[in-house]
Amino acid sequence: MLVVFEQHAWLLPAGLFSLGLVVGSFLNVVIYRLPLMMENRWRRDCCELLELAQEKQETPLNLATPNSHCPICKSAIKPWQNIPVISYLLLRGKCGSCGAHIALRYPIMEFITGLMTLALACFIAPSWALFGAVLFTWALITLTMIDIDHQLLPDDITLPLLWLGLLFNVGDTYVSLQEAVLGAMAGYLALWSIYWIFKLLTGKEGMGYGDFKLLAALGAWLGWQALPVIILLSSLVGAVCGIALMSIKRRGREIPIPFGPYLAMAGWIALLWGDELIARYLGNGGGA
C-alpha cells in the first residue's frame, strides 16, 4: 500500500479528503445523538435510584438507530440525499420531501473534517503516526462541537482518546511511553490544580472536569513537553474569543464559555507544529 501511495502521490490526499467528508457526516450524527444518549442514560439512572417508573421509548436511540430522517416531516433520507456536501448542494439546502431548510452547519462540518484530514497528509508521511493523527483529529472535532453545544466533554470520547494515545506511544509513535504517561498525569493535575485554586479563592468553579481529562488525553498523545504550549495557546485564544463574545454579543462575565474547543484547537496545532513551537519556546526561555 505504501508503494502505491509513493507511485501515485495524489492518491493519499484525495483518499483522506474523501474519507474525511464521509466521516464528517457520521460525526454530525455523533455530535447530535451522543448528548441525547447520555441524557437518556442519566434519566434511567435517576429513575432507578429514586425507584420511579421509567418511560419506554418507542424507538431506541443510539448511533445506528433510528435511521437519518428529516426532523420536520420525519421522512427517511435516501442514500443519494446523504452524500457529504454534494447532496446539500444538489438539494439546495432543503429536504427532498418537504422542502424544509437544512442547517448549513452539516455540510460545513463535513467539509472542515475533510480539510483537516487532508492537512494531515501534508505534514505526516503514510505510517501509523498518520493513522493515529486521523483518529486524534476526528475525536477533537467531535469534542469541540459537543462542548460548544452543551458545554460537555463526554467521558465516552475523552477517556478512550487518552488510552489510545498511550497505546500509540507504546512504540514511540509521537513521544516515548514515559513522556506520554507523564503527559497524561501532568495534563490532568495542571488543570485540576488551577480549578481548586480558583474555587478556593472565588468560591466558583472555573472549568469542568472534562477539561482535565481532555488535557490529560492531549498529554498522552503529545507528551508532557507539549503541555505548556497547549495551555498557553488555548488560554490566549480563549481570552481573545471570550472578550470578543462579551463585546459583540454583550455577554456577561457570569455566562460560562466552554474551554474544551480551545484546548482541542491548541492540541491539533501542537500535533502538527508542536516540535517547532516547543523549540522556539525553549529557545526564547534559554535566551532570556
Describe the secondary-structure layout.
Layout: H1 2-7, H2 11-50, H3 86-90, H4 105-123, H5 128-150, H6 155-168, H7 177-202, H8 209-222, H9 227-248, H10 260-287
Structural summary, described in words:
The chain has helices at 2-7, 11-50, 86-90, 105-123, 128-150, 155-168, 177-202, 209-222, 227-248, 260-287. The chain has 288 residues and is mainly alpha-helical. Helix 6 (155-168) packs parallel to helix 8 (209-222) and helix 9 (227-248) packs across helix 10 (260-287).
Strand content: under 5%
- Class computed from helices, strands and strand pairing: mainly alpha
Radius of gyration: 21 Å
Overall residue-averaged pLDDT value = 86
Major sheet description:
none
The strand count comes to: 0
Features:
288 residues; mainly alpha; 10 helices; globular
Summarize this, please?
The chain is an all-alpha fold and 288 residues long.
